[in-house]
Write a structure and sequence with these properties.
The structure holds 2 protein chains of 2 kinds. Chain A is mostly helical. Chain A contains 5 helices and no strands. Chain A is flat and about 45 Å long. Chain B contains 10 helices and no strands. The N terminus and C terminus of chain B are likely disordered. Classes of the chains: A mainly alpha, B mainly alpha. Chain A: Pfam families: Vps55.
Chain lengths: 128, 248
């Protein structure tokens, strides 16, 4: 239990650092467009979470069209989250440093979400 | 493997050999990702070959005919078989993720060109010199064609195209192939249109590289959309082959 608590605290710190980087990348240059990155990365695990319950069976690999759709949309959203600041920096709407900061922050946020869900599912499997 | 089990179990040592055989058969499914599958299946027919206890010739005949020999596989075409890259269970997942990433990359590449064109400004110190060309609706047409083709290809039922007998009628197969043709024609038309726009609008007019980039982004959008469709198709239609390997 202590290890789980430590994991949660660590993950929350990483999440806070990620949001700090994103907000800093917005606030330092008075340009709040990189905040879209945070929204994108927060929305990224949503399709997988929604569509994973539509699959009938884990052993059935063929009829999992909704799961595939969820993964497709997740992948699109993740790539969009990385590509959006690059494009904004390319057309000189935002500063290149803000682009790097927002990408790193978004990656931390998304990694936190992934690690959190993975840790919890593992604990559930261990518990049962 | 099925007729080993139904072979007459008159003598017990023959039974033990059958068990060894199943163990060898299961193994290549697990470490599929390490290399070509043929090397692992090569070992399977050889291991039970020293078989003095098999007295009846019918056993021998059936055993040698059942599994392709190591140096003669009737399904083989090339002299050196292709290294079969398959990630096993996760191949479909990885393929779908890769297809989604390519799809997003394609569209963001073109949107990059569009945003860049919208924010293009005159060079420093020359305020009266406007950028000579912008991304207009003509540049969007090939991308729209490719997206429509992508939609058509994705919505087709993969089993219909393969034309398996047993479900549906033959007209359904014919219609599915027609729709597949329309989808691929739309995608190819998008690719051709993007190349046309690149050549006619940007290269022939002799714009500098900064503006020719719009045309190249258009072409790469079409190419990446086509790659994404192919990857998605392969990932989604490869499941049956895996099942076949499992039930072999």
């Amino acid at each position: 239990m202590a290890a789980g608590l430590r994991t949660v605290i660590l993950l929350s710190f990483v999440l806070a650092v990620g949001f700090l980087l994103i907000i800093l990348s917005c606030a330092l240059w008075q340009n709040w467009l990189p905040l879209l990155v945070a929204l994108t990365f927060v929305l990224a695990p949503l399709p997988n979470a929604l569509f994973s319950h539509c699959g009938s069976d884990d052993l059935n690999y063929e009829g999992s069209g909704p799961i595939d759709l969820g993964r497709f949309i997740t992948s699109i959203i993740v790539v969009s989250g990385v590509a959006l600041p690059i494009i904004l920096a390319h057309s000189e709407v935002i500063n290149p440093k803000a682009c790097v900061m927002s990408i790193v922050g978004g990656g931390l946020v998304y990694g936190t979400i992934l690690a959190y869900s993975a840790a919890f599912s593992q604990e559930d499997a261990e518990y049962e | 493997m099925s007729f080993f089990n139904c072979s007459p179990s008159s003598s017990s040592p023959l039974r033990i050999q059958v068990q060894v055989e199943t163990e060898v058969q299961v193994e290549p499914d697990q470490n599929n990702s390490h290399g070509p599958r043929t090397t692992s299946t090569v070992s399977s027919p050889h291991s039970p070959l020293p078989q003095p206890p098999l007295a009846t010739p019918s056993h021998l005949y059936s055993r040698t005919m059942s599994i392709p020999r190591s140096n003669y596989d009737p399904r083989r075409v090339c002299l050196n078989p292709f290294p079969e890259i398959s990630l096993g269970k996760h191949r479909r997942t990885a393929g779908v993720y890769l297809a989604g990433a390519l799809f997003a990359l394609a569209n963001w590449t073109f949107l990059d060109a569009a945003v860049l064109s919208a924010h293009a400004h005159s060079p420093w110190g020359q305020p009266d010199q406007d950028p000579p060309v912008h991304v207009s609706f003509v540049d969007w047409i090939p991308g729209i064609c490719s997206l429509l083709g992508y939609l058509v290809i994705t919505l087709i039922d993969k089993d219909r195209v393969r034309g398996d007998e047993g479900f549906g009628d033959s007209r359904a197969v014919w219609r599915a192939r027609l729709f597949l043709f329309i989808g691929f024609a739309l995608m190819a038309g998008g690719l051709a249109g993007s190349v046309t726009v690149l050549i006619l609008k940007y290269i022939l007019n002799g714009f500098p590289d900064q503006f020719t980039y719009y045309g190249y982004a258009n072409v790469s959008q079409s190419v990446a959309l086509m790659l994404s469709a192919i990857v998605l198709w392969i990932a989604q239609s490869g499941g049956s082959e895996y099942e076949y390997n499992l039930t072999l």
